[in-house]
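Quick review question:
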């Protein structure tokens, strides 16, 4: 049975820069985890109260 993990990354900043910054952070995180043998199950982004961009990442090993 595979063990699933959920990670949450968030960024609070100016609207135009937070998308780029969080995307880069998520990309680095996923590259690290996939190199360690994790399978990426799902990545989704949502805005929280228009001040934060949140990424929900589900991985498993």
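Suggested answer, residue by residue:
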């Amino acid at each position: 049975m595979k063990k699933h993990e959920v990670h949450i990354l968030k960024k609070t900043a100016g609207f135009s820069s937070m998308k780029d910054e969080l995307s880069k952070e998520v990309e680095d995180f996923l590259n690290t985890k996939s190199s360690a043998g994790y399978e990426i199950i799902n990545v989704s982004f949502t805005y929280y109260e228009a001040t934060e961009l949140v990424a929900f990442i589900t991985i498993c090993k």
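Why it works: The first helix runs from residue 15 to 35. Helices lie at 15-35.
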